[in-house]
Design a protein that fits this description.
disordered N terminus; alpha/beta; five-stranded parallel β-sheet
Length: about 210
């Protein structure tokens, strides 16, 4: 009887240790660190809230937003230094595990020049060399049919992502937004549009981010 009690006690101790060890190994949601690289869709223009903030609220993840208006893989913003390659360098300073690059429409003028492909290749390689996981999202739109130039931007980025072996999310089939979810100048989503983007990206990231 004494031996049986000792054996049961030993099993209970091992089980408790294993449970504690499993709980310790589990990564809490707050431990997931993500940096956002993007344009005005992510930076916001006259918005009270932007989707990266909503993403943090809805997931519990740590989100750092480095997006700047008028930026892209080739587009560098009105004042320069806004391009995604620069944003990646700043984002890496926040020590994220993942860098999500979300493109908009600023690169349309560079379709077919090779500049989008070059910029995307440089940005993704910087992320990989920095030890972060790159997650790439193509541009979205607010109406159908989607302009061919926007589709061409998405196609160029997808090819680079596929070649680099990093996940790519198509945001054009169908477009995530509607005209009434865009501001009057059509340059940036409304707060309602930002909420839609947050939900779309959160759903995808949950399939990509390790728990």
């Amino acid at each position: 009887m004494v031996a049986a009690i000792i054996l049961v006690g030993a099993i209970a101790t091992v089980s408790a240790f294993a449970l504690k060890h499993k709980q310790t190994d589990a990564k809490p949601l707050s431990a997931v660190r993500i940096a956002i690289v993007g344009d005005s869709y992510s930076a916001g223009m006259r918005n009270r809230v932007v989707w990266p903030t909503l993403l943090a609220q809805r997931t519990g993840w740590s989100i750092s937003n480095f997006a700047l208006p008028d930026a892209g893989y080739a587009a560098d913003g009105l004042g320069g230094g806004h391009g995604f390659t620069y944003q990646v360098e700043r984002a890496q300073g926040a020590n994220p595990q993942y860098i999500v690059v979300v493109s908009g429409i600023a690169d349309q003028q560079f379709v077919g020049t090779g500049d989008i492909t070059t910029g995307a290749t440089i940005a993704i390689n910087k992320i990989k060399l920095g030890g972060q996981q790159a997650l790439v999202i193509g541009p979205t739109w607010y109406d159908t049919p989607v302009p061919q130039e926007v589709r061409n931007v998405s196609d160029e980025i997808r090819k680079v992502a596929d070649t680099a072996g990093v996940p790519f999310l198509d945001a054009l089939d169908p477009p995530w937004l509607k005209p009434d979810q865009m501001q009057a100048d059509l340059g940036s989503p409304t707060d309602g549009g930002q909420s839609v983007i947050a939900d779309k990206i959160a759903a995808w990231l949950r399939t990509q981010v390790a728990r």
